[in-house]
Amino acid sequence: MSSEHVIVVEKLADFRWDEAGLKVITADQFVAEEPGARGQLRKVTNLCRTYGYLSMGYYCSLLAEARGDRVTPSVDTILSLQRKRMQPAALAQLNRLIGPLKAIPRSVNTLTLHVFFGAIEDPDLVALARKSFELFRCPLLEMTLERQEQSMCWQIGGMQALDLRDVDTSRDEVFVQALRQYTRRSWRPLIAMPSPRMDLAVLHDPTDPLPPSNLKTLKKLVDVGQDMGIAVELIEKKDFSRLTQFDALFIRETTAGTHHTFQFAKKAEAEGMPVIDDPGSILRCTNKAFLAELLRENAIATPMTHMASRRTIGDMHNRLNYPLVVKVPDGAFSRSVKKADSFEHLHDIAKDMLRESEIILLQEFMYTDFDWRIGVLSGQAVFAAKYFMCDGHWQILQHADNGKYTEGRVQAVPLDQVPPEVLDAAVNSARLVGNSFYGVDLKSTASGVYVIEINDNPNLDVGVEDAALGDALYVMLLSHFLKQVERRFHSSAAHPAAQGAPLLSLAAG
């Protein structure tokens, strides 16, 4: 199985650009395709002249969805543009991105913008163009801006799909660059290469000082993918509008429910794309209060944990043993984690933490020389490592006041050398969260094995967590994605309507 990108136009003459390396077909050809004729996943970009209801452009998107293709624009987008009704929240987002446009003469009160796949050449309008594509997913968009007489500010007056034939020849370069970026093709006359079995997007932040995977590791993922016939591309926050051009998403950024990583995960899930980590796993794992309750309710051994608020912490004085660990539930990488040696010390720590969160966690302190980290993928252990405490410190990561940090050493351990009770506890607890990729932290003591927490995007770096398995670990991850993509493809081929849930509401449109 491989994937391809198809451009659909009403007449081949409508697409006047060099189409080397890009498949361009007519709407008639697309509509007339026999059932089962395609043998691969497809991304379809519908560039028909009009998307009017029951027009050829409308039917191309409609049939693409029925066939399980990932099509732009979707039928939902087409209907929204036809109704000429924009959600107030979306409109407000766009209006906030329109600057004063000081270069526009006062005598001009209306501007017409042509946006190609979220791209425009005017630097003052780049953010507006990108967001318009993120929100409406219309490949070629004509946007009208109107100057408001009283405030002299600009606001959106209307939006509609742009006919491909109306792309001005003076803007050919802008259009071509935008399409190249969107389809991720160089269009150079190279020797024909086979289509990739899957296109995987890897979301990362090159400026993050503590990423789940460093750049060397991400490059390793790209190389292993290439050997497997899988195209792996590193993307960033700014690439949100391109997300649907991939088959699957692997998030390699520190996640949070209020973060763009969660929006990427939500978008991928809504599009039916396999994603690690999924929105549910992000919400569950990034809040330690949820995890503590989940583990307790399912009889998983954890350090004794109490939840405290401003109103209840004073009443806990006689119930606590010191030292104890104090945590803000949504902290990451040992941030917002402190050790209290007395009730007075706890009071001082809690005063600051309760400004961040209405609830904080008070957890029994267990010192061990190292924590176990077990990587669990789809309910199976895939790697193990010992995370040793920093010298002279009680944590594996020690943050300094100047923003710097030190890390304890990490030792990869073959799975067959890990105590069975550690593996069992890790796998059983991870399965409670979901079926994704997790890093379970545990402590093994004389009194038993205790789960500390479950991480939704565990660290994975070359020469560290992969030291025992090497490239085989990356093969397992990529194979997991590939199986899910193939399963989705075969499911949509057998039951195309399953991919067309939005079609159920078409009658109301």
Describe this structure in words.
The chain has a 5-stranded antiparallel sheet. The protein has a 4-stranded parallel sheet with strand order 2-1-3-4. A hairpin with a 5-residue loop joins strand 18 (397-399) and strand 19. Among the domains are: 1-83, Rossmann fold (3-Layer(aba) Sandwich), CATH 3.40.50; 198-284 and 470-489, Rossmann fold. It is built from 13 helices and 22 strands. The chain is of the alpha/beta class and 509 residues long. The longest helix has 24 residues, at 471-494. It has helices at 27-31, 56-66, 75-83, 88-96, 126-136, 172-183, 215-227, 260-270, 279-285, 288-297, 343-356, 420-433, 471-494; strands spanning 3-9, 23-26, 41-46, 70-72, 110-116, 140-147, 154-161, 198-203, 230-235, 248-251, 275-276, 305-308, 324-327, 337-340, 360-364, 370-377, 380-388, 397-399, 405-407, 410-412, 437-445, 448-455. The two termini are 35 Å apart. The chain is globular.
CATH topology group of the domain at 198-284 and 470-489: Rossmann fold
Mean pLDDT across residues:
84
**Count of distinct strands:** 22
Q: Report the total helices.
A: 13
Helix content estimate: 25-40%
Strand percentage, roughly? 15-25%
Rounded to the nearest angstrom, the radius of gyration is 26 Å
- Termini gap: 35 Å
